[in-house]
């Protein structure tokens, strides 16, 4: 599977970059020395072998045993790449050095969205069936940039307008979709023969096998915001916007928050 087409329009590299943003660590030192490393549980080591076969640079895969709060025999696998040429690509695409959870952003170039977001979900997301048997797909992130980008992706794929705020305990965004919306996203993200964690592919099949019971009422999506409505709420009070647009206070306030975030991201970029 080795590919010299090192671009994020290449589905394999788009997935790899998303995965690196969640589970990877980029370290740079003096005299061009440094390393990209990913450490994951041994059950998922197959993905690291796929990464090693993908890139045209030398890399190593090693194992270690750690003692954690849950196990005294926790086996992990580490993939390391020291080649500066590969690290240069990662930095060019926007990967920061060191601690990065709140700093990561969408790639700074054209990229394959479905593969990139699948990489993020394989690293920091989950999917499957709830305790009540409903399909779900979630992504947890500390980055406001990623949260906004993923919410936009959900809207493009499903038409659903999602909002999200940081939770009070961990200060992270937990963005979840359910039922048919989850199926729509999973169908796009986990297509046949895509690069992904094996256990997530199994969960994807569970999601797609679900059928809505005949007696379960389907809730309509919330009304989409238009450009004219966005312009109106940014130039009028919340009370006036609620009355004129027939929107709830929460709807107007969340839309203003989202527009403010998008504006800040635009200025930063």
Q: Please, could you describe this protein's structure?
A:
This protein is of the alpha+beta class and 269 residues long. The protein has 3 domains: 11-100, Endonuclease I-creI, CATH 3.10.28.10; 119-208, Endonuclease I-creI; 227-268. It has 10 helices and 7 strands. It has helices at 11-23, 45-54, 84-93, 113-124, 144-158, 179-189, 198-208, 227-233, 238-245, 249-268, and strands at residues 24-28, 34-41, 60-66, 74-81, 125-129, 135-141, 173-178. A hairpin with a 7-residue loop joins strand 3 (60-66) and strand 4. Helix 1 (11-23) packs parallel to helix 4. The radius of gyration is 21 Å and the shape is globular.
Assembly of the depicted chains: single chain
- Count every helix, treating DSSP H or I runs of 4 or more residues as helices: 10
Strand-residue fraction?
A: 15-25%
What's the end-to-end separation, in Å? 34 Å
Q: State the helical fraction.
A: 40-55%
Which descriptor suits the 3D outline?
A: globular
SSE-based structural type: alpha+beta
What's the total number of strands? 7
At CATH level 3, the topology of the largest domain is Endonuclease I-creI
Number of domains: 3
Proper CATH architecture of the largest domain: Roll
CATH class of the largest domain: Alpha Beta
Q: Give the SSE string.
A: HEEHEEHHEEHEHHHHH
Report the sheet with the most strands, covering strand number, pairing sense and barrel closure: 4 strands, antiparallel
Strand order of the largest sheet: 1-2-4-3
Rg from alpha-carbon coordinates? 21 Å
Q: Which regions have little confidence, pLDDT < 50, spanning 5+ residues?
A: none
Arithmetic mean of pLDDT: 89
Fourth-tier CATH superfamily name of the largest domain = Homing endonucleases
């Amino acid at each position: 599977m080795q590919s010299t087409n090192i671009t994020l329009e290449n589905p394999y590299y788009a997935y790899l970059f998303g995965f690196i943003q969640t589970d990877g660590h980029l370290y740079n030192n003096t005299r061009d020395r440094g390393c990209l490393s990913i450490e994951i549980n041994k059950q998922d080591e197959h993905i690291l072998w796929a990464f090693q076969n993908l890139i045209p640079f030398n890399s190593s895969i090693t194992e270690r045993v750690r003692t954690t709060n849950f196990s005294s025999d926790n086996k992990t696998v580490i993939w390391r790449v020291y080649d500066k040429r590969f690290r240069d690509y990662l930095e060019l695409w926007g990967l920061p050095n060191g601690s990065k959870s709140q700093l990561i952003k969408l790639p700074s170039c054209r990229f394959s969205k479905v593969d990139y977001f699948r990489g993020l979900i394989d690293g920091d997301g989950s999917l499957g069936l709830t305790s009540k048997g409903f399909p779900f797909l979630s992504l947890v992130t500390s980055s406001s940039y990623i949260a906004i980008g993923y919410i936009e992706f959900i809207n493009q794929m499903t038409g659903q307008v999602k909002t999200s705020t940081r939770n009070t305990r961990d200060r992270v965004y937990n963005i979840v979709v359910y039922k048919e919306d989850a199926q729509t996203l999973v169908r796009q993200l986990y297509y046949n023969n895509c690069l992904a964690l094996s256990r997530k592919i199994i969960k994807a099949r569970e999601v797609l096998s679900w059928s809505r019971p005949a007696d379960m009422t389907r809730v309509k999506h919330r009304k989409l915001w238009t450009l004219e409505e966005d312009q109106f709420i940014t130039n009028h009070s919340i009370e006036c916007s609620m009355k004129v647009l027939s929107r709830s206070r929460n709807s107007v306030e969340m839309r203003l928050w989202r527009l403010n975030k998008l504006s800040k991201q635009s200025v930063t970029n």
